[in-house]
Write a structure and sequence with these properties.
By secondary structure, this protein is an all-beta fold. It has a domain of 63 residues. Helix content is 0%, strand content 35%.
Length: 91
């Protein structure tokens, strides 16, 4: 499972036991989502957020003056193939 780390500038992949399998460092601090794309699920698409807003829930050490918070969409090739999402039909 992949997890975008808001205010962490990275995507973390966890193994089945919950341990960190790898980290993908990003040039944007506010990574917001990571999903696999392309028909063969080989590209990891990572979104980031551009705006910063003050909050009591901000990470410790968060810099509201930072200029590298994000706003870009990234595509990386992690050499791991994703899986198609499970679809359900509700009648």
């Amino acid at each position: 499972m992949n997890s975008a780390q808001w205010d962490g500038g990275q995507v973390v992949r966890y193994d089945l036991d919950g341990g960190v399998e790898r980290r993908i460092k990003m040039p944007a601090l506010q990574t917001s989502s990571a999903v696999y794309g392309r028909p063969d699920q080989t590209d990891l698409c990572i979104s980031s957020a551009a705006d910063f807003w003050p909050s009591e829930y901000a990470s410790p050490g968060c810099d509201p003056e930072a200029t590298d918070v994000g706003g870009q969409l990234f595509r990386v090739h992690p050499d791991i193939q994703g899986k198609l999402e499970h679809r359900a039909r509700f009648d």
